From TrEMBL:
Homodimer. The keyword Isomerase applies. PANTHER family: TRIOSEPHOSPHATE ISOMERASE. The keyword Membrane does not apply. Pathway: Carbohydrate biosynthesis; gluconeogenesis; Carbohydrate degradation; glycolysis; D-glyceraldehyde 3-phosphate from glycerone phosphate: step 1/1. It comes from Naganishia liquefaciens. InterPro entries: Aldolase_TIM, TIM_sf, TrioseP_Isoase_bac/euk, Triosephosphate_isomerase, Triosephosphate_isomerase_AS. It is an enzyme of class 5 (isomerase). This is Triosephosphate isomerase.
């Protein structure tokens, strides 16, 4: 059952996929989907297409970058600053995605510092955490998720959490077709919420949207959306397909 106090949230992470034409078609599909705004929908194209998407996408859908740096400007070749995203009227940024952590050296501290910089600049953050298959098999799922999250709890203030959507993305489920069962996802979401209640505040625990990511598609989204602590999804592969619209409407 969707919690009426937490607006359902669906993010589409296009990753490093798309062309001008393909992204035009994806945005047209979303513009024609009659999104009613009950679910907050945010799409994250590769940075080169951010302005194209920003200009073409009709509200209530919004735009996210897939990453940003900590500084406002300067000699940081290849990076985008939170201030530049704000200047381009981009509302959101994804931080801490497992692909950034595992392939591009984003440490827990770096993700926390980027989160602080993004929120200070006025962005909203989709903050990703998640354990690998080996970590789950070792029984340290929560230890890993809490370690990743703790770096952020130590870096931002209680009031900053209203600008954060937390994405639980088990690494073993990302892009593998191996979706977590609704029970597996619910269990971790509930524990993350409880942990935030202890470490930050009950207010933040009750209000934060905790979304699930990992092989969500048009078929499995509704059962997952029915879990009490699943407040939406971060969608990779399926965000490039027509079924993304069904996922955006899975809380209806
Ligand atoms: C992701 O990369 O955030 C993701 C959830 O990917 P996929 O839906 O393809 O598993």
């Amino acid at each position: 059952m969707v919690n009426p106090n937490r607006r359902f949230f669906v993010g589409g992470n296009f990753k490093m996929n798309g062309t001008v034409d393909m992204i035009t078609a994806l945005i047209e599909q979303l513009n024609n989907a009659n999104l009613d705004g009950k679910t907050e929908v945010v799409v994250a194209p590769p940075s080169i297409y951010l302005l194209q998407v920003k200009n073409a996408l009709r509200p209530p859908a919004q735009v996210a970058a897939q990453n940003c740096y900590t500084a406002d400007s300067g000699a940081y070749t290849g990076e985008i600053s939170p201030a530049q995203l704000i200047d381009a009227r981009v509302e959101w940024v994804i931080l801490g995605h497992s692909e950034r952590r595992s392939m591009f050296g984003d440490t827990d501290k770096f993700v926390a510092d980027k989160t602080r910089a993004a929120i200070s600049a006025g962005l909203k953050v989709i903050l990703c955490v998640g354990e690998t298959k080996e970590e789950r098999e070792k029984g340290i799922t929560m230890e890993i998720n809490e370690r990743q999250l703790e770096a952020v709890t130590k870096t931002i203030d209680e009031k900053d959490w209203e600008h954060v959507v937390l994405a639980y993305e088990p690494v073993w489920a990302i892009g593998t077709g191996l979706v977590a069962t609704p029970q597996q996802a619910q269990e971790v979401h509930a524990e993350l919420r409880q942990w935030l209640g202890k470490k930050v505040s009950q207010k933040v625990a009750d209000s934060i949207r905790i979304i699930y990511g990992g092989s969500v598609n048009g078929k499995n989204c509704r059962e997952l959306a029915g879990q009490p602590d699943i407040d939406g999804f971060l969608v990779g592969g399926a965000s490039l397909k027509p079924e993304f619209v069904d996922i955006c409407k899975s809380a209806d």
